[in-house]
Each structure stands twice: as C-alpha cells, then as structure tokens.
Amino acid sequence: MTGLSASERQAALEQILIPARIVPVLTIDRAEDGVPLARALVAGGVKVLEVTFRTEAAAAAAKAIIAEVPEAVVGIGTVLNADDLRRAQELGARFAVSPGATPELLDAAAGSALPLLPGVATASEIMQTHAKGFKLLKFFPAEQAGGIPLLRALAGPFPKMRFCPTGGIDGSNVATWLAEPNVIAAGGSWLCPGSDIKAANWEVITGRCIDAMKHLRRR
C-alpha cells in the first residue's frame, strides 16, 4: 500500500519544488556538517535541500537534519535503485531524486509513498517516465546535455512535462533557466561548494543564499 496515487505523489512534489525555486545539491563528507549546513541554508531563505547519497556520511547527515532542523524540507538525491529509494523513505525524506530512470527504479517508485523526481536527458527517457505516470522530471545534466535550446525543443512534443534542471547551473544562469515556462525549479551545488562546507563557512553560505533569493525576486 503506497497511500498515494501517482498523480498525488506528483502533486506533492510540485508543492515542494514550485515555492522553492532553487534546490541546493549537497554532498556532505562529514555527518557533523549536516545540521549547521542546513541551518545556514535555511537562514538564507533556502529550505528545500537535496542530500545526495554520494558519501558514507550522507544518511547520518540527512537523518540529523530531519531531526534537528524542522524548517528544512529534506530530499535524498543520487537514488540509483529500489534499495536507495527504500532507505530514503526510512530516513524520513520528503522526496527522492535520481540522475536517471531505470525500469527497476520507476517500478519501485510506483510502489512507494515517497515522491520521486527521476532524471532524464532525452526524448526517449521522457517517454519512458511519462508512460509510468511521471510529469515532473529532473533534466540532467542540464547544460552538458544541450542546455536551454534542448529543453525548448523538448517542450514541443511534451508540452505538459515540467522540469527541474540540474548540472552546470549556477548563480550566473539560474534565473535564465527559471524563466523557461516548463521549468519549475533548478538545482545545483553553487550555493554551498565543498570548500565552504569543509571550512565551515556557514555565514558565507547564508549570505550567498540571501543574495540568490533576492536576485530571483527582483526578476
């Protein structure tokens, strides 16, 4: 029993991502950095966070953030298979993100209550995910796959699909991406690069978030 239909899971994900606009992609090497990093992001007005399953510390960091930073809306990224999806749900994540979309993962998502944002980069991948009931997708790697010209080309045959592009997006181009009508949010690591996390530059991260959100509001 999932408790939610495919359309309800998609709606729940939209309710998270549309107000967020920017979703920082977090690669956390030390579990103890998770909570202060999340607090720094939230203080800067960035509340929806993607903690990637790329490090051994990721699960512990995400668990701590969920427990100690209630203002944060935590998703788990780099979900590669059904086991990763199950682990993300057990941690208490609000959503999951994958870089691609295998049949196994899409089938697992259909049996899970956790909303999944699957990654696509081609028309065929969009067709495969759409056939499974997905209308909200991660466009990855966004810049490297063809950038905004490709996304605009895909809008023709897929007018109802919406995207959260990630990959090659930073402060210089995020507003341009968000101006596209089929983009509801954008992800990236520029708000909290690994060097700032390692150095515990929490105030710098907060300031960068404040500047980013002010810039988006001005547009």
Mind explaining what this structure looks like?
The protein has one domain (6-218): Alpha-Beta Barrel (TIM Barrel). The chain is globular, with a radius of gyration of 16 Å. By secondary structure, the chain is an alpha/beta fold. The chain has helices spanning 6-20, 34-43, 58-68, 82-91, 103-110, 123-131, 142-145, 147-155, 174-178, 194-198, 202-218, and strands spanning 22-26, 48-52, 73-77, 95-97, 116-117, 119-120, 136-139, 162-165, 186-188. The protein is built from 11 helices and 9 strands. The model has no long low-confidence stretch (mean pLDDT 96). Helix content is 47%, strand content 15%. 42% of the residues are buried. Helix 3 (58-68) links the parallel strand 2 and strand 3 (73-77). It has a 6-stranded parallel sheet with strand order 5-4-3-2-1-9, with helices on both faces. A 3-stranded parallel sheet has the order 6-7-8. Helix 2 packs parallel to helix 11. Belongs to the KHG/KDPG aldolase family. This is 2-dehydro-3-deoxy-phosphogluconate aldolase.
